[in-house]
Amino acid sequence: MNTHVKRVSLCDAKPVGEHTYTFHVEFDRDKCTGCGICAIECPSRIIEMRPAEQDCRPNCVRVMLGEVSSRDEVAGLSCNIDDMTGEEIGYATERLLKEGAREAYVIPVYMKKSRPGYELRVLCDINDRDRIVEAIFRYTTTIGVRETSYHRYVMDRTVEEMYTSYGNVRIKRSSGYGSQKCKFEYDDLSVIADREEIGLREAKERIGHERISRQSPDYKKEDV
Predict the structure, then answer these.
(1) pLDDT tens-digit profile of 69-123?
(2) Do 76 and 51 lie in a common domain?
(3) Looking at 67, 97, 116, which one is the last position of a domain?
(4) Based on the structure, what is the number of domains in the chain?
(5) In this structure, are 116 and 59 located in the same domain?
(6) Tell me: the pLDDT tens digits for 137-162?
(7) Same structural domain, 18 and 37
(8) C-alpha distance across the termini of the chain, in Å
(9) What does pTM read for this prediction?
(10) 124 and 77, same structural domain?
(11) Cα angle 221, 173, 207; round to 5
């Protein structure tokens, strides 16, 4: 049994539904390592398991239980353009983002007759697809748009706010699939860099040093 699992018990001797048994899984919080694999955030879980044969108890050797971060489906739209200036394409991508596209960018390509051009690629929600297609035709010179569906594996994201001597700075945290990441919000760092007349890297280092010092046992809030 997984060392994080404290107890697995059968809730009801009778099958629930068609040959499905319900189990109660309790986790041991004291043995949590913070890996997130065993869904230790929840004190208990109810799961269902189907036996291999009819009219018998589940014959499993072990139960693997975990959480999978979110996965969603998006529409990928693309088209080739060879008769727009850089300024016009830049304006078009900005408009597409304002229309609700998740991503909009261009890639240099060679088109027919070896003419240099651009491939415009746009990602958007499935429900926004028709509106984004209309926007592509409105803001570009293309006469055709290709569509592809993508599944995205997305880490869970949260935003925290940290008080510093330079002002409040937002921290974006991401977790899932066995990884954890965090970074300071660019807009907050750029404001500090402009005000202090320093580079963005130095602003990040200064905020990072304050963050580390706050984790020290000698830290006092009034010192910030």
Answers:
(1) 567 889 999 999 999 999 999 999 999 999 999 999 999 999 888 889 999 999 9
(2) no
(3) 67
(4) 3
(5) no
(6) 999 999 999 999 999 888 899 999 98
(7) yes
(8) 47
(9) 0.56
(10) yes
(11) 40
H or E, element range at 107: strand 103-110
| CA–CA gap between residue 2 and residue 63 (Å, rounded) | 8
Six token digits for residue 90: 């830049």
128 and 76 Cβ atoms separated by less than 8 Å? no
Where residue 155 falls (left for φ over 0; alpha for ψ -120 to 50; beta otherwise) is: beta
Of 178, 181, 194, 188, nearest to 210 (Cα)? 188
Contact 27, 4 (CB under 8 A): yes
The per-residue pLDDT for range 41-79, each reduced to its tens digit, is 444 444 444 444 554 555 555 555 555 556 788 999 999
Amino acid at 102: R
Pull the structure tokens for residue 175: 């977790």
Phi, psi of 55 (to 5 degrees): 60, 40
Q: Which two tokens stand for residue 165?
A: 């001597």
- Examine the domain organization and report whether 130 and 145 are in the same domain: yes
Q: Is 86 within 8 Å of 80 (Cβ atoms)?
A: no
Contact (Cβ atoms closer than 8 angstroms) between residue 147 and residue 130: no
16 and 83 share a domain?
Answer: no
The residue among 60, 56, 62, 58 whose CA lies nearest residue 38 is 62
Question: Containing domain of residue 199, as a range?
Answer: 156-223
- Token pair 């700075």 is at which residue? 169
Based on the fold, state whether residues 76 and 147 are members of the same structural domain: yes
Q: Give the residue from 138, 153, 168 where a domain finishes.
A: 153
